[in-house]
């Protein structure tokens, strides 16, 4: 039998689909004939990014790309807001989602070891750990996705967990929690598949904000110092990792690294690896 495109006609929902890695995943899924729903913290930006996606595929029915806001920093209403989003995205459970992707991450401070407080140590967990955990809870009812190996949930970690940049202790801890969450969920939600993509330095709006602070030369050096490819990854590169984890029905509890070989780079003496 001819190999099937497993994303054609699939419905993919992306938390964080309004920017960076998640927007790249949405674009990749549409290029494969999937239907895509994106989410971000506020509706105006969601609408703007849905229009942008539609503009890339002018022959596609507009309904193939939609989006709804869900502010994942709102701890108090988080579970209700996530449930409301799934209700809207599936017409009350009538049109189930096939694959859920989580790339949302807010900008938070970077507490340093000598100044961290109980509050700042906990702050980073809200959007990057508690939110994907509550998404899993909502999925576990089976109302919005079929809990079979055909469907999947893909989270996002980071190589900073394995080789923290100087001053990046707390992000390493926050994202390290995601690694544990993925292993546990893959087990507890079986045969539904749960996996994680581990990005190195990917040239997104988030990274661009940091690059703007350090200047072009330092940016080029940073790319060289943190990859074997002398480059940053692009959202369309790492989107393939998420696509693979959706398509491979034998991938569960998998960690797929997309980092240009960052963990294999031999640091030269005296070179700083700081993100600035
Ligand atoms: N880029 C890298 O080099 C890199 C490396 C390792 C790990 N990561 C991690 O990968 C994730 C995605 O990174 P990125 O570079 O793609 O970042 P990005 O371009 O800044 O995108 C972040 C996404 O998260 C959403 N988001 C932020 N706050 C939210 C909130 N309160 N509620 C709901 N959604 C919210 C944003 O939506 P709105 O703006 O619409 O609210 C946006 O879609 C982050 O967790 C990041 O730490 C990135
Ligand atoms: C739009 O989505 C439908 C349903 O998932 C799919 O059959 C169709 O191929 C998609 N259209 C395009 C142009 O991608
Ligand atoms: C963005 C979003 O979904 N916000 C809603 C979260 O839940 C509260 C309480 O139900 C609503 O007031 C917000 O509009």
Sketch the topology as an H/E string, one letter per element: EHEHEHEHHEHEHHHE
What is the approximate shape?
globular
Helix content: 40-55%
Query: In angstroms, what is the radius of gyration?
Result: 18 Å
What's the main sheet like? 7 strands, parallel
Structural class comes to alpha/beta
Q: Report, as a whole number of angstroms, the end-to-end distance.
A: 53 Å
Write down how many β-strands occur, each being a DSSP E stretch of 2 or more residues.
Answer: 7
Query: How many helical elements?
Result: 9
Protein name: NAD(P)-binding protein
Family: Belongs to the short-chain dehydrogenases/reductases (SDR) family.
Keywords: Membrane, NADP, Oxidoreductase, Transmembrane, Transmembrane helix
Pfam family, one: SDR
């Amino acid at each position: 039998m001819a190999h099937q495109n497993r994303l054609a006609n699939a419905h993919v929902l992306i938390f964080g689909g309004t920017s960076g890695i998640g927007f790249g995943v949405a674009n990749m899924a549409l290029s494969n004939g999937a239907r895509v729903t994106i989410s971000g913290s506020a509706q105006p930006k969601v609408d703007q990014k849905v229009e942008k996606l539609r503009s890339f595929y002018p022959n596609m029915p507009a309904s193939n790309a939609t989006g709804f806001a869900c502010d994942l920093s709102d701890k108090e209403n988080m579970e209700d807001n996530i449930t409301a989003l799934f209700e809207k995205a599936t017409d009350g459970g009538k049109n189930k989602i096939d694959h859920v992707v989580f790339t949302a991450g807010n900008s938070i401070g970077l507490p340093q070891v000598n100044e961290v407080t109980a509050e700042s140590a906990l702050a980073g967990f809200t959007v990057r750990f508690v939110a994907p955990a509550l998404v899993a809870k909502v999925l576990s009812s089976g109302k919005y996705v079929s809990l079979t190996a055909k469907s999947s949930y893909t989270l996002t970690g980071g190589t900073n967990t394995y080789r923290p940049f100087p001053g990046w202790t707390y992000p390493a801890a926050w994202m390290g929690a995601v690694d544990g969450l993925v292993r546990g969920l893959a087990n507890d939600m079986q045969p539904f598949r749960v996996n994680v993509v581990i990005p190195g330095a990917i040239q997104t709006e988030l990274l661009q904000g940091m690059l703007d602070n350090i200047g072009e030369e330092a940016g080029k050096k940073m790319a060289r110092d943190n990859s074997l490819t002398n480059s940053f990854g692009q959202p369309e590169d790492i989107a393939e990792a998420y696509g693979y984890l959706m398509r491979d029905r034998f991938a569960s509890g998998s960690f797929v690294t997309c980092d240009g070989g960052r963990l294999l780079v031999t640091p030269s003496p005296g070179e700083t690896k700081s993100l600035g």
